[in-house]
Amino acid sequence: MVVQREPLNIKKYIAVGLLTFLVFSLGVTIGLLLEKVRYSELKSENQLQDITYNSLQLQLLFLTSLTENEESCSVLITTLQQSVTVLEQSLEKLLMWEKDATISKEGMSLLKRKYTLDNIRYWLFANKNKETCDVNFITVLYFFSNKNCDICPDQGIILSYYKEIFDERLLIFPIDLDLTSEEPMIQLLISKFNITETTKPVLIVEDKKYVGILSTDELGNIICNSFSHPQSECEDVL
Amino acid sequence: MAYLIKIIILCTYFISLYFSIFWLVTLEEKLSKVKQEKKNKKQPTVYPFVSIIIPAYNEEDTVQSTIASVLNLDYPKNCYEIIVIDDGSTDSTSEKIDASIKNNSSVPVIFKKQKNQGKAAALNWGLSKSKGDFFACLDADSVVESDILKKMLLFYQEHEKNIVIVTPLMKIVKPKNLLQKFQRVEYILAAFIQRLMGDIDCIYIAPGPFSLYRTKIIQDLGGFDEKNITEDQEIAYRVQSHHFKIRQCPEAFVRTVAPRNLAEFYKQRNRWFKGSLFNLMKYKKMFLNRKYGDFGIFQLPLNLSVYLLGIITFCFFTYYIVKPIWQTVYKIILLNFDIGTILKQFFSSSFDILQLDLGIMFVLYVALSIALYFFYVSHQFSNEKMFEEGVVYLFPYFFLYYVLLSVISIIVLLEMIVGKKQKW
Prior knowledge:
The complex is a heterodimer.
Chain A: H1 10-64, H2 70-100, H3 105-132, E1 138-144, H4 152-166, E2 170-176, H5 184-193, E3 202-205, E4 208-211, H6 216-226, H7 234-237
Parallel strand pairs in A: 1-2
Antiparallel strand pairs in A: 1-3, 3-4
Helix pairs in contact in A: 1-2, 1-3, 2-3
Chain B: H1 2-37, E1 50-56, H2 63-71, E2 80-87, H3 93-102, E3 109-114, H4 119-129, E4 134-137, E5 142-144, H5 148-158, E6 163-172, H6 178-199, E7 211-214, H7 215-220, H8 231-241, E8 245-256, H9 262-282, H10 293-334, H11 339-348, H12 358-381, H13 394-418
Parallel strand pairs in B: 1-2, 1-4, 2-3, 6-8
Antiparallel strand pairs in B: 4-7, 5-8, 6-7
């Protein structure tokens, strides 16, 4: 018996290919639109940060000109604490979205640099604020790297844990050391705190420097001992 | 590296989507034909002689039901014979076969006990004794409906002359556990896809439960390959390589027992996957060869991509499920088991829709919608209720069952790399 197959329906293969391409392109377009929306959101959040920072500066200037400033200090501190928390959240989002970014990768990188600068100026501001107001928060400057530091994520987990416990009383300012070559300000901090390639991560809790990873217990002790007023949470930590 | 992973992910989605849309387009092309075929109430005009070959190996629990279903076929008793081969069973299969055929006088039965030589050898022996123009192979763990032979022969009479194998629509005997429920859905979907495959000459397997063959042509093609661990697939590949046709008769039902536990399931799928790879290698000349139509251009690349997709599914599962689980466990240890704070931290993080990868989700949504549409149509086609076994098990079916299969495919590939020998 001589048998033959039906000829191949090439048109069907092409039609299916086109349909697949259409659906796929739609998916890719949605992805790109989403990236743009993410970028815009980060930018507008950053603009808001700038305005808040200007406001804080003005508030501090105003307070230093007064003799009775206790009540006004509480407004300043609350604004600062909230603002730093928002800054942390925005930076977290930025780091997450930056990995998936394609069209706005460059913009995201610039934004990351901007957020790092914001962190540094907020850290300076928070320290300056201590001279004028009686504050109940502590500051942690956290130097980390994503490229040459396997244990840095662990330190990040422990810091987030204490952030959850102490909330706005613990102000964390993360500084990405991978941006050193792009941002001279980071270089200045590196020189000031004498940070080298082998000493990562580095924590500056208040004014004290801690090199290498700090365990949950060690960091808990350091944080609790740094508060000027006793904290109820420290009863569990210490 | 990150870019490479991204490209692999995008290619995987694209290929999966292409296959899904291909089946959807085929379905739309053939839907009216499928509906029409289901209404066929005619009877065959002639009753050719048929040999039913039942190879059995350690099937003491089911072989009697299998033989009983064949003895009770609604088909002239003088027009078929039964050939039972006990392929060296170590249990009481032989005694059970003896008991089943002892009181039968209406249908001629040949019963042979032999040393274990494998299913293909048993089938070849049966084929050599076969007197029928057609022969059916029936696994000893399956039961047929009484009108199956009439329906399948009518199908032969009403369709093209160069059909060499007609397969039935396989269903699972009432599932008793979750694994069998998964397999029930899988069989319903697979049966429907096989129906569509038949229309574009892409059927690549003649299932053990009651595939009906033209005896002369199969004998001319050399019978079953005794060295092959999936002889039912190999014979289909060989038939396709000679451009003969294989069709599914959607009205002919056969029920088979699905593996009851993971060990049985693993053994079965391991053999299927390995056999499938062996056959792909054996018939590589057909791969992407236009001479073999859709079978060469579409079906064989699809069969191969199942393994590639299996590996990628496994990697995704590890990355998106196992890795976060491990990270959470690690975090709990790192934070001195303060689960209360960790939970608080988890619930205090607000949900942001922008965190979702909506672009990829859109592609997945389209692919899942096609899968659900097929799920619906295939149940209608098989006269099965969609939610007969409940709804809850469907979620793990769609999201975990294929991960389980992907794990088995990875093991198979590893075993093949280290050269582990496979027995039937």
